[in-house]
Sequence to fold (682 residues):
Amino acid sequence: MFYMAAVTLAAALPQPAAAGSALASVLALNFFFVPPRRSLAVGGSEYWWILLSLLALSFGLSAVLGSLRRRREEADAARARASDLHALAQSMADVDGFEGMALAAASRLEVATGRPCAIFAKDETGGLSWFATQGREFHERAAAWAIESGRPLGAGSLAWPELRLWCAPFSRFGSAGAVQVLLGDGERPDSQTTEHWLSLVRQAGLALERERAAAAAMRSERTAQAEAARNTLLASLSHDLRTPLAGIVGSASALRTQAASLSEAQKGKLLEAIEYEARDLAVMADNVLQIARLSQPSSELASQWESIEDVLGAAVARARRRWPTASIQLKAPPGLPPLRAEAGLLAQALANLVDNAARHGGSPAKVVVQAGRSREGVFVAVRDFGAGLPEGDPTELFARWKRGQAGRAGGSGLGLAICQLAAQAHGGAVSAKRCDPGSEFRIDLPVPAAPEDA
Amino acid sequence: MSKPSILVLEDEVSIATFVCASLSAAGMLPRATGRAVHARRELATAPADLLIVDLGLPDEDGITFITELRKTSSVPVLVLSARAHESQKIEALDAGADDYLGKPFGVGELLARVRAMLRRAAAAPTAPARLRVGELEYDRASRELKLRGAAVHLTKRELALFDALARALGKVLTHRQLLAEVWGAEQVDQLHYLRVYMGHLRSKVEADPAEPRYLLTELGVGYRLADE
Fold:
């Protein structure tokens, strides 16, 4: 009984204490139970054998149990380290953008190391910026050295062990950043701990570098797209400019060289054509300006509170001046809510829709412009009663600078592209559908909650 | 009445040429200069009845020119604005310009604006006590508005808004000017107030508020009361 308790105690104790306890229990057994009792003398050789084998047995048992315990501790530590790594990956995956990820990593590393941490990252210009959840004194020069040399430094490492921090680069070569852990006075993390920290740093670094590479790839793709759009714009422009210019040059030269033989009515017609074509060019210039502006990834609207009736009224008035023979009806119920919009741009987009409808709406053209409330805000629908949409998918019509149909009554084809860009810039959408007869184009715009009334 | 003298401050020769040609064909006396400094010298020696000012001057900001001018003179100013100076035309109106024309413009539009401005300048310096526009009748003293002889009931704010536009009859008032007048100087950015009240006012005055006949929209700039 007594011996068993002692051995069990030995198993629960660390190695040297376990050995001591085993020895003590055998001595006690000898003292109390082996004749002559109450003395450490041993009465016969058979007792010697029993005592020695009991001692060996208890040593062996405690060694086996000790190693089992060590292994369990190692497994626990490994599990804790794995869960640190997992938590780090998880928290970085949950946020968007480099800065968010860097901050998430810093805060996760703080939990894992139990100390203030900062992520240092190189920016595009080669300078270092750092991300941390608390504004502590982090050392930029230490981070720069770690990144430069590709090696950890500070307490617990070979370089500058006297520093009160530990700093390691994301990777050994060409690292994009480093992690810095602030330590207490005289603290020296052991090699196992720093190894674990290093694997956390590697993982955070990998994720951050991947994020940065993805952002760079997206940027260059966007640049390429903008470039392609610009080229299409230029090609389409030079084509679209030629038509009205040819008319203007022709009419003007006829007036100059043949003035004597032209009747007053003919002269009037030629002059009218010049003015008409030139005004078309002006509209086209506005359209091109807006496309160029809205195609910029960073373009911003000068939005203010506008009433859709005002904007629509201006757009319809413009189309009526352009198409005096067309019947353009405007229907807007009273009490439509004000919306946030850039009036000039929105009017231009709507004028393009009305202009298209008047152009393709038969002869004489009939166009109905209807404004109204929708679930998300307001809509404007422009209905014509002409030949209808060309074959194929109506959404294709909005692809930039595509003409609706070869041989239709002119028009630059830029108009619908601007409608789409403008609607999107206002947080809305455009759509087109076939009607019988004709077609309907519709712009949907969101209406934010208006501030309190005056 | 003698021929009105008009100073055209425009540095683009083709535009200055056609503006001067059409003004003199319409019986006015135009002179043109492309520099703000010259214009100031011209005005010092021979005053003009009206100024036409392009906002894209090479030697000076058009707005600075108008602000300077307004310190000493109330001569009517018509601003010409190209697309690139879109936001500047509002600043110019706030700085004291009387009206604007966006480029490109036709002779018809130009002459209509110039004539209306000269007419307003020639009229009494204070707005008339009673005015009649189409089927609208407004008595400033009693603050009564009648449409086809029937009284239109307006709230205090609607009346203040209408009164501001009536005093400027035919002249565009910017959003800021209207907001300052009706709601006070600290409310000049509360554009939605103006939108809402203009909607109310139109629904009481206009036959079709979507296509107003009296209370006209100057898109992105302001409003004006039609001067028929």
